[in-house]
Amino acid sequence: MVMGWMRLGWMLGLAAAVLGCGSGSTPPSTTAKGGIPRLIERPRVVNELRQIYLSHQTYALQHSRPPRNLEELNEQMEPNSREYQALRDGRYVLNWNVGEAQASSNKVLAYEKDADANGERYVVMTDSSVQRMNQQQFEAANR
Predict the structure, then answer these.
(1) Cα separation, 26 vs 131, whole angstroms
(2) Which one of 6, 53, 82, 138 counts the least CB within 10 Å of its CB?
């Protein structure tokens, strides 16, 4: 029983340290997250970027050219999907300039609009890989 209380105390102390309970700090922003909130949302962000890539590629294969705007891309997406909503709301940005010639190179296809608290953001490349980049890497890959 004592071991259980010690474990509970340790876990509460860890949670207070990580979340800043009692320190007067404000909770992390929902747009530029860091720490635990960022770890929790990471799999969702990676999955959504992969889905955007797949929708983009499916459209390009069916029409022999990449989509030019969100309405064209919407042909391959569910209108109520998280990916479509995130693109429409501006949480993700798709590089409409990435043409067929650039599709074989390693360019940024879509990315999170806002970097996290560490200045990093997730991007999906034209080779389908999803990467976490700092601002310098992002600027170099997004030329």
Answers:
(1) 29
(2) 6
108 and 131 in contact (C-beta within 8 Å)? no
What does the pLDDT look like over 69-110, one tens digit per residue? 999 999 888 878 899 999 999 999 999 988 655 555 678 999
Residues in the chain: 143
Sheet of 130-134, strand order: 92-94, 108-112, 120-125, 130-134
Find where tokens 């998280």 sit: 82
Which residues are paired to 134 by β-bridges? 120
Reported pTM: 0.72
Domain ranges of the chain: 33-141
∠ Cα 77 135 118 (to 5°) = 90
